[in-house]
Amino acid sequence: MNSKFNLNIFHKVLITLLAVTLIPLCTLWFVSNRAAQQELTNNVSTNLVSTMNTVATGINAWDDTNLRAMAQTTRLKDIISMKAELQNPILVSTGATYEWSYLMFTVLPDGTNVGRNDGGAPTPYGDRGYFQQVIKGQPVGRQVVIGKTSGKPALILATPIRNADATLVGVLAMSMYLTDISKIVTDTRIGETGRAILLDASHKVIAHGDASKVRTALQDFSAYPALKVAGIADAPTVYTSEDRKVIGFMRKLPQGWTLLIEQDYDEAYATLNKMEREARILIAVTMALVIGVAIFLGKALTSPINELTAIARQLSNGELQVNIPQTARGDEIGSLARAIDRLGVSIQLAMDRLRKKV
């Protein structure tokens, strides 16, 4: 026979205490956790966007400086002349002004090298990407290459040289080290794991905040997870990269380059994770206390009731000489004890009357 489970006083006390204690506590934790998570998310996003703006501003300012210098140089009559003997002194002085530049040179529309500031032999440049970009009508040609002398990424900028009739008579190009840009990127830190990554137009690494992630110069990052995350260019987004959860923000720069700022999720949300751990500990401790209180109250309630039940059972069996110690209590159990005591007296009187009649 299957016995039906019934809730006793202990179960009811335990359920009541758990409900009264945990429901408000869990509700408060849920509401507070959501508010804290929203606030922390806003702070993390603001920090990433602010860092992005700072790094992008530094890169764009450096780039604008070079473009202005080249634009001013292309307006000079000696440069427009496309004669090496007139161009070279200007190229030498201009190149010396910008210490990150290691070569300035001019090229005819057919790709023939005319002037250079290093005194080297003329070199054909007709097949170079930056030259072709300008010849095809772009206002600026760009190409990131590996410097032959430094072995590190270098940038070549090219701008058109036009005469008074706006006819293209040549191309001015400047090769420069990316030391300043690399320093801007590598010096960017957000906590312990936050860093910046700068990629060229073909997603080759120009600079990376974590040098250990770059195995070769101009490493191809086309398959990098962040580049495939939807919406990451609109707002900081959470995604998985190299088996770790990160939050990142990406922006396309005017140069066609891609700038990415990312930080490990666990570090960014460390405060929230700590709050959740502490909340879980608090709930667990509260449950343990509630169970302890329920056991204490359950025993305090059930022990005298069980004693009275046993006494009532004795009375029902005709054992009228019983001792009821709970009659002195002033609560409901005391009232029940006194009622059972009166019942015992009544049974005794009734039995005495029956004996007399017999």
UniProtKB/TrEMBL annotation:
InterPro entries: dCache_1 (IPR033479), HAMP_dom (IPR003660), HssS/ArlS-like (IPR050398). Its EC number is 2.7.13.3. It catalyses: ATP + protein L-histidine = ADP + protein N-phospho-L-histidine. It is a multi-pass membrane protein. PANTHER family: METHYL-ACCEPTING CHEMOTAXIS PROTEIN (PTHR45528:SF10), SENSOR HISTIDINE KINASE CPXA (PTHR45528). This is histidine kinase. Its main location: membrane. Pfam families: dCache_1 (PF02743), HAMP (PF00672). The chain crosses the membrane at residues 12-31, 281-301. Gene3D superfamilies: HAMP domain in histidine kinase, PAS domain. Keywords: Cell membrane, Kinase, Membrane, Phosphoprotein, Transferase, Transmembrane, Transmembrane helix.
